[in-house]
Write a structure and sequence with these properties.
- The structure holds two protein chains of two kinds.
- By secondary structure, chain A is α/β, with parallel strands linked by helices.
- In chain A, the strands form two sheets. Chain A has a five-stranded parallel beta sheet with strand order 5-6-7-3-8, with helices on both faces.
- Chain A starts with 11 loop residues before the first strand and ends with a strand.
- The relative contact order of chain A is 0.21.
- By secondary structure, chain B is an all-alpha fold.
- Chain B contains ten helices and no strands.
- In chain B, helix 3 crosses helix 8 and helix 8 runs parallel beside helix 9.
- The longest helix of chain B is centred in the C-terminal third of the chain and has 42 residues.
- Classes of the chains: A alpha/beta, B mainly alpha.
- Chains A and B meet through strand 5 of A and helix 7, helix 8 and helix 10 of B.
């Protein structure tokens, strides 16, 4: 069982000299500061370690050495792959991670980003971009301290990117958002407080 | 139209087999060696109308289905536990291999020595079904998408949802076919145990008596009864296990029609 092995100093999460089990020189020896209750963009080309950093934060990847300062923060995430249950509907995919929300409320949220006719259809009938938007709504509706997003706008056109960014800003409600993108401009419609370039 | 043609094809295949059987029995010309379809049909009507018929069916069915149901529950729980505990997986591995490789007859004789013939079909059905269901279910759990398990952990998904929607959904198709396979084996081995143990008022006993009195027509008739029972139980089990999936599929088709 992996643990989220980081502590916070009440205002930020700090990753110090982290070394992963596999070689990833680009993040070794670095000190990464992620302010809480702000939006941080981690930008970098493929293979620069963006996803690795997010995976370390989420407890998916363990570190071989180094230190992560943080504590019992709760997370929700948009993964690089959507990680949705393909045979369940969009509503059900959200309901099973946040059972306290009423179905009607989930439907209302999904309607903001998806065609109404699709909301009660199984995920395997959705397009790539639609799945992405369900994953985003799921992460936003899950009660958590930190929302982590790995290339959330992949497969979305400009108009959808704008609408989705607006939705994220509305629902974020002062929480910490950590978003990994190839280039900062991919997150141009979000209010960015901090940029980490890899 | 396509369905109608398929039905006609199937009926014609059945008739060809019955015709071949009739011709073979006429060619052999000895009802003890091979009873013809008509004699077997007569025997079938006779045994179905006999007073004790339903009692015999009930006894064997209860015995076999008890063993199978217990095996289903035991194997699923053990597979889930073994999936989470490597040591338990290693501990169970030799026992499962023994169940798989030891001849059924050895188990039957051993159970007869220990406990006698009463309820022997239950024990044998259990021993036969456990390795099939356990191995298939464990394989299903092992194949569960690790990324979904990580997702469930990060989103702090409730255990019930995790077990049902991630683990159970992953294994449900394999589980249905493994259970059906195990059930077929339970009928074969369970009836064989009743034959060897001459368990009172069971299907096995009737087959044994057919052998003693050289009633080949009744042997064939009881065999048909067992085949029909096994087929009906297999369908019932598939229906129960696949029930949730059917409901889900219906929901899907409703959504598509909207």
């Amino acid at each position: 069982m992996k643990e989220k092995n980081h502590v916070i100093n009440h205002s930020e999460i700090i990753l110090k000299n982290i070394k992963l089990a596999y070689d990833l020189d680009c993040i070794e020896g670095k000190e990464i500061h992620i302010p809480l209750n702000k939006t941080t963009v981690i930008e970098g080309a493929s293979g620069r370690g963006k996803t690795s950093i997010l995976n370390v934060l989420l407890g998916i990847t363990s570190i071989a050495s180094g230190m992560i300062q943080g504590n019992n923060l709760t997370y929700s995430a948009v993964f690089q792959e959507d990680r949705l249950l393909e045979e369940l509907t969009g509503v059900k995919n959200i309901k099973i991670v946040e059972p306290c929300i009423k179905n009607e409320d989930i439907e209302r949220e999904l309607e903001k980003l998806l065609p109404v006719s699709y909301i009660r259809k199984p995920i395997n009938t959705y397009s790539r971009g639609m799945k992405r938007r369900v994953a985003i709504v799921r992460a936003m509706l899950k009660e958590s301290d930190i929302v982590v997003m790995d290339e959330p706008f992949a497969g979305l056109d400009e108009e959808l990117k704008k609408r989705t960014s607006k939705y994220i800003t509305e629902v974020l409600n002062g929480r910490t958002l950590i978003i990994a993108v190839h280039e900062k401009k991919e997150a141009e419609y979000l209010r960015i407080d901090n940029v980490i370039s890899l | 139209m396509k369905n109608f043609i398929t039905v006609i094809k199937r009926i014609s295949i059945g008739l060809i087999y019955i015709l071949g059987w009739q011709m073979l029995s006429m060619w052999v010309g000895n009802k003890i060696l091979i009873a013809g379809p008509y004699e077997v049909f007569e025997a079938l009507v006779r045994i179905v109308n006999a007073e004790e018929f339903w009692g015999i069916i009930k006894n064997s069915l209860i015995n076999i289905m008890t063993g199978f149901t217990l095996a289903l529950l035991f194997s699923t729980v053990m597979a889930f536990a073994a999936f989470h505990a490597e040591y338990l997986r290693m501990l169970l591995s030799p026992a499962i291999h023994i169940c798989k490789s030891v001849p059924v007859a050895s188990f039957i004789i051993l159970i007869l020595i220990w406990t006698g013939s009463e309820g022997i079909a239950s024990v044998i059905s259990f021993i036969i079904a456990v390795p099939v269901i356990y191995s298939g279910t464990l394989r299903g759990f092992m194949d569960t998408d690790k990324k979904l398990i990580d997702m469930a952990r990060i989103f702090r998904m409730k255990s019930y949802y995790k077990i049902y929607y991630i683990y159970f959904w992953q294994i449900r198709k394999r589980f249905g076919s493994d259970a059906a396979l195990a059930l077929g084996m339970c009928f074969k081995a369970g009836v064989a145990a009743e034959v060897i143990g001459v368990a009172k008022n069971t299907l096995g006993e009737q087959i044994y008596l057919s052998k003693i009195y050289l009633n080949t027509d009744e042997l064939f008739a009881w065999t048909i009864v067992i085949m029909v029972l096994a087929f009906a139980m297999e369908k019932a089990v598939k229906l129960v296990l696949g029930g949730m999936e059917i409901i889900h599929e219906r929901k899907k088709s409703c959504n598509k029609s909207q």
